[in-house]
Specification:
The protein is α/β, with parallel strands linked by helices and 259 residues long. The protein folds into 2 domains: 129 residues, 3-Layer(aba) Sandwich (Rossmann fold); 107 residues, Rossmann fold. It is built from 11 helices and 10 strands. The strands form 4 sheets. The chain has a 4-stranded parallel beta sheet, sandwiched between helices. The protein has a two-stranded parallel sheet with strand order 1-10. It starts with a helix and ends in a 7-residue tail after the last helix.
């Protein structure tokens, strides 16, 4: 369900584009899987979207982006196809770097970042790696948020908010004054208010759905050779379409029909 937060934002930003959304609901969540499984599942999903004729694929999952993106780009992406993740735009936003700026790392006004993510994303250290390519002198404190995705997927928002608060408090004991907090899982914006309340209003929380929508607009402007079709959005799932449709409709608070 988490990727729907990204879809919702980019589809509103780009109503002229017909998007194809693939949810691997049968095998989710990825955040507690090992890296080989995550890579294989991510490849499967990308191939499903390529079969649908998608030229550009966005991995609307931090775990898939962290564990699989670089290897996937090196091993299976070719020709006129592209696969993008959601970590790099997030980092570019934190350090106020222009989209696609690959110049040498430099100092930034932000030097204390809190990262809340799934156990697999935290273990990959992909966020720190990508950040080191772009900035120097930034301290990152990571908090693996066990149990949070499950609570959100099950629709138990009261439990999810309590879990989010607990994880925020645990991180604050190690980094008392973060400047920026990254909700490094696309499920977590559902409980953003709980994170904000625990961290304090002075901590800037990065909303990835807005970041990805902005960065996609810039990417399409810089890469006009990418073709896209007008038309209705299409939703595909590896799970039970009826069940996933019902959950997605509750998740986004508007009708979503999967096949």
């Amino acid at each position: 369900m988490g990727g729907l937060t990204i879809f919702d934002s980019i589809s509103k930003r780009h109503p002229e584009i017909g998007f194809v959304y693939y949810g691997d609901n049968h095998r989710a969540p990825y955040g507690v899987r090992n890296q080989d499984e995550i890579f294989q599942f991510t490849c499967d999903g990308v191939n499903e979207l390529w079969k649908e004729g998608c030229q550009l694929v966005i991995l609307a999952c931090n775990t898939a982006s962290a564990v699989s993106l670089r290897k996937l780009q090196e091993e299976i992406v070719s020709g006129n196809k592209r696969v993008l993740g959601i970590f790099v735009p997030t980092i570019e936003t934190i350090i106020e770097r222009n989209w696609g700026d690959n110049s040498a790392p430099r100092e930034t006004s932000v030097n204390r970042v809190a990262l809340f993510a799934t156990p697999a994303t935290v273990a990959s250290r992909a966020f720190q790696r990508e950040l080191s390519f772009r900035a120097i002198g930034v301290d990152v404190e990571s908090q693996p948020c066990g149990g949070l995705v499950d609570a959100i997927e099950e629709g138990d928002i009261i439990l999810a908010e309590a879990i989010a608060k607990s994880h925020a408090e645990a991180l604050l004991r190690r980094m008392p004054n973060p400047q920026v907090a990254v909700l490094g899982c696309t499920h977590y914006p559902i409980v953003q208010k709980a994170f904000q309340g625990a961290l304090g209003q002075e901590v800037r929380i990065i909303n990835q759905s807005e970041v990805v929508a902005d960065s996609l607009a810039d990417y399409l402007q810089r890469n006009k050779w990418i073709e896209y079709q007008y038309g209705d959005n299409k939703f595909i799932t590896s799970g039970n379409p009826s069940s996933v449709s019902n959950r997605a409709t509750l998740f986004l608070k508007r009708s979503i029909q999967f096949t």
